[in-house]
Design brief:
Number of domains: 2
Strand content: 25-35%
Shape: flat
Number of helices: 5
Order of helices and strands: HHEEEEEEEEEEEEHHH
């Protein structure tokens, strides 16, 4: 037996007790308590990782846009190189050429990019399940009814060809259909079909049904901006 082993284990245990040991989080490497970054930016970077994740050979991408762009956080004035990961649902900060930090949702609720895109952290329900995501503001921000969009990516696992009649399928990141949400009287409503609108605004159900039919609204597209404008005109 190596006599050095017990001493090494004692050293590790003392690090954990003193809060100095870093622990792995969900396959992203190690959690970091980056106080200097937090103090300088006002952003919390204590959630996940730190070194760039190893890339697995897959089709598609975790991102709608992989590039980093300048954005402010929580209404601040300082710009940071950021991007949104549509698979994990977290914003990522480019700390260096080789390091990317995923930012905590707990402390970072609003991101505004120079190109005009703004994301707000919102709670909502889909099929009676409560969720929390960064929703992108779209449409007219001055309307009493606010409109949001959620673009997310799903991971489809590798599928082996079990016979000569089947085709092997590589793992793939695939963009899902966007979801749209309306916010009215501080309520976030997921809108996926005409009945969702009619239920949300029962006093105007006939008008809504007629409008949706006339305009042939696609509920998985930015046609929802037309719906926002219409609701604003009748409410």
């Amino acid at each position: 037996m190596n006599l050095k082993t017990p001493l090494f284990l004692l050293f590790l245990l003392s690090m954990v007790e003193n809060g100095n040991a870093q622990s792995p989080v969900s396959g992203y490497g190690f959690a970091e308590n980056n106080n200097s970054f937090q103090e300088a930016s006002g952003m919390s970077a204590t959630l996940v990782n730190i070194t760039t994740r190893e890339k697995i050979k897959t089709k598609g991408s975790e991102y709608v846009d992989e590039s980093f762009s300048e954005a402010t956080v929580n209404g601040g004035s300082q710009y940071f190189d950021l991007r949104y990961n549509n698979y994990t649902g977290f914003f990522e900060y480019k700390k260096s050429a080789t390091e990317t930090v995923s930012l905590s949702k707990e402390s970072n609720t609003a991101f505004s990019f120079k190109d005009g895109k703004t994301y707000l952290l919102k709670k909502y329900k889909v099929n009676k399940t409560e969720k929390e995501d960064y929703l992108q503001i779209i449409g007219n921000q001055d309307h009493k009814i606010k409109l949001y969009k959620l673009e997310s990516v799903e991971f489809i696992a590798y599928k082996e060809a079990l016979s000569s009649y089947q085709e092997e399928k590589l793992p793939e990141y695939k963009l899902k259909k966007p979801l749209y949400f309306l916010e009215y009287n501080n309520n976030i409503i997921s809108i996926q079909k005409s009945k969702d609108l009619e239920k949300a605004f029962p006093d105007h159900s006939k008008e809504i049904k007629k409008f949706i039919s006339q305009k042939n609204i696609d509920f998985n597209s930015d046609d929802m901006i037309l719906v926002q404008d219409f609701l604003n005109s009748i409410l």
